Amino acid sequence: MIRVVPLLGLALLLLSAGCADKADEGASAPASLYVDPAYTHLACYDNGEFRLFATFFRIRNESDEELGPFYVKYIFHDDTLVDSMTEKRKEIAPERESGSELILLQPGEVYQGGHSFTLVSDPDLADVLRDKVGPERILEIQFIEEKTDQALASYWIDKLAFAGEDSKSQ
To answer: Could you give the residue ranges of the DSSP H alpha helices within 32-169?
Structure first.
């Protein structure tokens, strides 16, 4: 019995190592799509005539291979934001839904983009948003590979900026 235990342990070790090799065959490494936090944000614009949310992002292909085609998907995690939009949807993928050209990045290539969402007409909307939105994880931007529908990268926006506020305080 004492001799069987070491042999059984060795057999299990070899079996698991063999299975691990087979599981790794054909697996691809995760894509290296870098989302630049300095250029990725959500802002509210309200000039009295029109109101909108605008998203901005900058991404870079840090792999040695072409990435794409892929599209951008916006997922709103704050109900106040969703209720403020004229199109009250939590998930929106504008390029895919409109049939627009998808994103294709060569190694080292940088891409900047964004989208705007029209807001309801409410003169007190900015105050409501200031009071109720956030302070964390309000919008997720996902970069989804067209063939697999898998995310190449994802980025969380934690803060809603208000356009023009910095210039008013100076």
So the answer is: 79-84, 94-98, 125-132, 165-169
What one-letter code names the amino acid at 27? A
Q: Give the number of C-alpha atoms closer than 13 A to the C-alpha of residue 133, restricted to the C-beta side.
A: 26
Distance CA(59)–CA(69), nearest Å, equals 14
Range of 50-54, 69-73, 116-120, 125-129 with top mean pLDDT: 69-73
pLDDT digits (tens, 9 = 90+) for 38-80: 999 889 888 877 888 899 999 999 999 999 999 999 999 888 8
Span between the terminal Cα atoms of the chain, in Å: 83
Cβ–Cβ < 8 Å for 101, 95: yes
Q: What CATH number does domain 33-169 carry, 2.160.10.10, 2.60.40.10, 3.30.870.10, 3.40.50.1360? A: 2.60.40.10
